[in-house]
Design a protein that fits this description.
alpha/beta, 6-stranded mixed β-sheet, 6 strands, globular
Amino acid sequence: MTSPRLAPPFWLHDAYTLKLLARAVAQAAAAALPAATPARVIDLGAGEAPYRRLFEARGAEYLACDIDAAPPLRIVPGQPLALADGSANAVLSFQVLEHVWDLDAYLGEARRLLADDGSLVLSTHGTWLYHPHPTDWRRWTRDGLLRELRCRGFEATRVWALVGPRAWTTQFRASGFARVLAALPLLGGLLAALCSSLMHLRMHLEDALTPATWIDGNAAVYVVLARKCTPTP
């Protein structure tokens, strides 16, 4: 079954954002694994592994690591995974970083696992609503995110900025309307789906009318493709 994050149905309140995110992750996967050759990717905080298919389709062995996974893929705070140094051609982190308190430990483990010629594929929020899992610590500017990565030994080679400031204000309203309408009896679900669909059309138009420089510096979601480098302050 295809994850709604990979192929979101149009009636979801965040379908527009999820569609852009899935497209960017697919492009990052192609850049990280340009040829369909044997490779290993390690997903740190995989959850339900929504993007597994994108990497397995490129011939990769996909390892989903999380706090509730079985050993040796269980993430235990303060402990390294029982996987060898440099054993990953790509390390993945999708919508995890904002939930991580100890960035040094998390990104340090990502760097340890990544081969010297490998790629980090990471997504996180620039501007978004609070969403605890179990809690939610951070938001980033584009410059701040790249600086956080650089000082921990990752240099961005490409950045995707998704959903500009006009569109993400509409996204937040769509989320609120969907919750209120879905709670109504009888036709609530249908009204919520219709409202969300109309909001998605508006978001598409708003992003089309927003200068790219505005979106780059004020995105709701950032996807980063990075390589290992010497950490700099």
